[in-house]
């Protein structure tokens, strides 16, 4: 029995043709996978872009709010008492205005560049809260470092507070 004889050249060309077709198919499959991977990366990058754009918008809003707040603070002028006497006087004036009895008022240990006063007082609870509010709004920079309140007679409290301010002359006077 004789196999169908084909010239060797034809067999080789046929095998080479089949091999080229297989290489083209494998290449097409690999190329398609790569294209799909690139498409997936593009989708991820677009998602990241949207997240980052939203973050930029949020940060821009926060920056604008900061600038607006900073501008408002810049307009606010803080006044400083010229000396300790003026500071003590303004503190005592707010106490008297609210009907609070001052038991003692003495200098407290100041931090460099500031003046501090310790005030012992007695008065109605709600009047004491009013004094705290008035100290905040008295027109000069004042910081309450500490406060302690004790119940006294019904509706009245005894308290001690330490207030601090920076003086226009530099403090520690």
Brief descriptors of the model:
single chain, 173 residues, alpha+beta, Alpha-Beta Plaits, 2 domains, four-stranded antiparallel β-sheet, 3 helices
Structure report:
With 173 residues, the protein is an alpha+beta fold. It folds into two domains: 1-76; 84-166, Ribosomal protein S6/Translation elongation factor EF1B (Alpha-Beta Plaits, 2-Layer Sandwich). It is built from three helices and four strands. A four-stranded antiparallel sheet has the order 1-2-4-3. It is rod-shaped, with a radius of gyration of 41 Å. The relative contact order is 0.11. The mean pLDDT is 87.
Brief summary:
The chain is α+β, with helices and mostly antiparallel strands. Helices cover 54% and strands 22% of the residues. A hairpin with a 6-residue loop joins strand 1 (101-107) and strand 2.
Blueprint of the fold:
Blueprint: H1 8-75, H2 84-97, E1 101-107, E2 114-124, H3 125-136, E3 143-151, E4 156-166
Antiparallel strand pairs: 1-2, 2-4, 3-4
Helix pairs in contact: 2-3
Sketch the topology as an H/E string, one letter per element.
Answer: HHEEHEE
Query: Which superfamily, in CATH terms, is the homologous superfamily of the largest domain?
Result: Ribosomal protein S6/Translation elongation factor EF1B
| Unreliably modeled segments | none
> What is the CATH topology classification name of the largest domain?
Alpha-Beta Plaits
- The CATH architecture of the largest domain can be given as 2-Layer Sandwich
Strand fraction equals 15-25%
**Rg (CA only):** 41 Å
Number of domains: 2
User: Strand arrangement, largest sheet?
Assistant: 1-2-4-3
Specify the CATH class of the largest domain.
Alpha Beta
Q: What's the β-strand tally?
A: 4
Report the structural category: alpha+beta
Number of discrete helical segments? 3
The description of the largest β-sheet is: 4 strands, antiparallel
Residue-averaged pLDDT, rounded?
87
Q: Helicity level, as a percent range?
A: 40-55%
Shape: rod-shaped
In whole angstroms, how far apart are the ends?
A: 127 Å
